[in-house]
Input
Amino acid sequence: MIESQTPDVIQAEHIVKSFGAVKALRDINMHLRKGEVLGLVGDNGAGKSTLIKILTGFVQPDDGKIFVNGQEVKLRSVTHARSLGIETVYQDLALVNELTVYHNMFLKREILLRPTPLLNNRAMREQAREHLQKIGINIQSVDTEVSKLSGGQRQAIAIARAVYSDARILLLDEPLAAMGAKEGSLILDLIRKLKAAGEVSMIMIAHNYAQVLEICDRVNLLQHGTITFDKKRTETSLEELSEMVMREYRIGATGS
Amino acid sequence: MAKNVLPSAAAQKTEPEKARGARGFLSNLAGILLRRREASIIVVAIILVVYFQASNQNFLTQNNIRTLSQFAAATAIIAAGEVMLLICGEIDLSAGMVFAFAPFIMFFSYQAGLPIWVAIIFGLLASAVVGLFNGLVTVLLKVPSFITTLGTLFLLTGLTLTISQGFPVLAPNVGAFNQVFGNSPYSEIIWAIAIVIVMQVVLSFTKWGLHTVATGSNLLGASETGVNVNRVKIGNFMLCSVFGGFAGILEGFRITSIDPLAGGTNIMFFAVAGAVIGGTSLMGGLGTIVGAFLGVLVLSILQDGFTLLGVSAFTFYIILGAAILIAMILNVRLQLLREAGRQ
Output
C-alpha cells in the first residue's frame, strides 16, 4: 500500500495550457507517489492527453511548475523528460509500422557499432528479445514488422519499450482503449507485474472505471481542465465515480 | 491456442528457408519476386535488354553501354536523394534546377581564382543552401513540399539564367580532375554506384535511415518518441539538393560545357519515376535506394533502346509514358498480391 509519507516522484502545480482560444488546462495540481499507479479519468476533451503530453515534455505548459523527485524542472523535450526517467506510451502507440519490433524498441536510443555510425542490429535484436521475455511478452519474433502485430501485441511492445532502460515514471495514455477483453487483461497483467516489481510509478488514463478501480491505487478526475476529485481506491467506489461524472451532465442538462 | 516462445519461433523461421534453398532455384523464384520488389525490376530490366539486343545488334556494344550508363548515372544520383525525401514523406521538384545552378556557382568560383576543388565545394554548398531553404519553408512555414519546391524550381531557373545571362560556358579544364569528375567514360556511373551503395547503407544501417523511415511512416509517433522529425526532413532536403548539384557538376565536366538549361524537370521526373518504379511509396515510409537505381536503369534502357530502334521522338514519349504506367500498375498489383500473401 502506498502511504502518504511516500515521496512524490512527480508534482505539478498550477499548470495552465491553452491552444489558441481553447483553454485545455486551467489550473492543474496533482502528484504521483513513488510506486503508485494513479488513474486519470475524465471526459473526452477534459485535458487528460494534454496533461500527459506536458509531463512527458512533448508540449510545454504556458504556466505552472513541475517537480520531478522534488526538483523543479522545465521539461524541454521528450528526450529531456526521458533522461529524468519519464517514459510515455501514447494512445497512438508511436510505433513505426514499417520497422521491426526491435527497431521500434530502440528507436531514438539505437545501439551503434562504435566507432562506426552503423546500427548494431544484433545487439538490439538480442536485448529486445531478452527484455520482452523478462517482462513476459510473447511475440513470434522481434524481426516481425510491427504492422503484422495485433492491437494487444502492439500495446505490449509500446509498454515494453517505455519500461526498457530504467523508466522510473510511466505515463500510459489509454492503454486499454480499442482492445478486446482478452488482450486488455494481458495488458492489465503486464501493468500489475510492473507494479509488483515496484520500480516504476505510473499514471494511467482510462475510460473504464471498473478497470481503473481494479488496478489503480488512487484516482484523479479531470473536468474542464482542472482536477475535481482525488481519492484513494479504497475510499471511493464505482458508484461514486460514475455519480461525479453524471452530475456534470445533469447540471448541463438542467441548465439548458 | 499456445503462444510461441521466442527462441522456438526464431527456429521455425529459419527451417523453411533452408528447405526452400534446397528445393532449387525455379520453385522459389516466384516467391522472391513477390517478396522483393527489386527482384521484379531486375527481371524487367533483363527482359528489356534481351528484347532490345534481339531487335538491334548495337544495343550491347561498348559504345552503347557507355551512352546508357552516362544517361542513367546523373538521374540515378538524383534519384538517391529523392528516395530519401519520398521515404520521409516529401518531394523535391527543384532538384533538376539545382542540377543547372550548382555548376555555374562552381564555374564562377573557379573563375574568381579559387582552386577547382574549392569551387566544387562551393557549388555543393550552394546546393545545400537551396535544400535548406526548401526544408525550412516546408517544415517551419508548413508549405507542402510539392508547392515549396515548385516555387524553388522557377526561382532557380530564373536565377541560373540571370547569372549565366542565358549562355552556356565551357567547363573548367584541369586535366586529371575532369577525368575523375565525369569526363572519363565511366566515371559518372562509378560515382552513381558509389552513391547508391553509400546511401543504401545510410538508409538501412544507420540511425539517420531509421529516423527517415520513422518520420515518413508515422510523423506524430516518431516525434513523440523523440525523433527530431524536422531535422530529418530538412537534412534530407539538403541531401537531395546536394545530389542534384553534384550530378549537374559531373554532367558539366562530362560534356565539357555548363548549360543554364541543363537538367530541368525532365531529369527530376525521371528520377522520381525511377524511384517509384523501384518500389518507393509516394505516401512515405517505404523505399530503397537500390530499387530506385534499378528503376532509373529500366527507364534508361527503355529510352536508349527506343532511340536505337529509331522510334520517332514524338511516339517515344507515348511509349515511355505507357511503359511507366504499365510498370506502375504491375507494381501496385504485385504489392497487393504480396500483402495478400503475407496474411
Q: What stands out?
A: The two ends of chain B are 18 Å apart (CA to CA). Strands of chain B lie at 169-170, 257-258. Residues 1-22 of chain B have pLDDT under 50 and may be disordered.
